[in-house]
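Structure ticket #2291
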Amino acid sequence: MVAPLYNSAEIPVKKPEQAHSGLWFDRFFNLYNTAWDLEDTAKAEWIKSMAGTVGQLEQLESFIKRQYRLVKHLQGSSQRYETDWHFVTGMGNSHPVENGFSWHPTLGVPYLAGSAVKGLVRAWVELNDDNLLLEPEKKARLKSWFGTEDKTVIAEQTGDFIFFDAIPEQRPSLIADIMTPHMGKWYSDGGENRALKAEALPADWHEPIPVTFLAVKHAQFIFSIAPRKAQQAEQLPAVFEALKQALEWLGAGAKTAAGYGYMERKGDFSGGMDAVLDKESMSEQQLEIAALTNAFKQNKTNNIKETVGGRLYTHLNTLIKKAKDDATEPVWSEQDKKALRTLGTELLKFVGVKNKKIKEVLDGLPQED
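Resolution: structure written out below.
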């Protein structure tokens, strides 16, 4: 039992804007009346108060980048999956509203624990729905990937793969969803009472009782898996194929029988993240060279003619002046100056500058080895 707070404690009535949504949901339920009972509408009111966008974008992005670097270092891979419809996880967690929810402990967003991802992949391998494995092969895969053929037996070894928590890529939106059970008394009392009363019979005359619960309306999740040893990386595509099939056909989280938790792979995540991390690691000069390079490539692709004195020509000359000025801060490195000379040569030829003039413009910038 949770001890009541001191009277002097100042507890806000509504969740503070920057508060951890999971902490607020799990620890600050404040709708008991003075007799420590719940009014009929209290549970639904609490769930509805949690609806909306949760989490902090900067924290999410920082976490995903750190995890991606770790997974890549381990020679693993990350993939993006998008929910087909609603998604809910952690309904069995203890809570005064009866239907709990799983929150990431530091990010305050719904997530799928790595253990749940592992269990989902294992369930697909056990089903062997692709019919590609003979029984001995399936047992060997179960022991290799998960450490044991039989999940009811304590594993004698670790599995060959590390399953990371699946995290939403963007701030997810939560909704107050509703289920309408008709035979609650049958499920709660039917197994104990042989002489059933009318209200406990599994019949169709019972009125539905709306029960509100928290669900993810729509989200894209990043799933990451890495091998424990480098030589096991060759099996990684097969592991991700099992994950893909499991998310499409079994679903993740709770209420999958009602259509919740099914996901499809969406786009390329690794390529986009590599580009982001590469950009973050660039110096100011490298970013400027990259911007001019991209603009130049677009002009060439779209057959847009550039002229002497034009936008790209002017931008190039500005960078050349910066590179030649030893007083410029931050100082240009030799490698950046070489890259600028290579780009400048190509761009100046494109606009029709003669070779002699090109040498004059780029004089002072070192050439590539």
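Closing remark: Strands lie at 52-53, 77-83, 161-163, 167-168, 173-179, 211-218, 220-227, 263-265.
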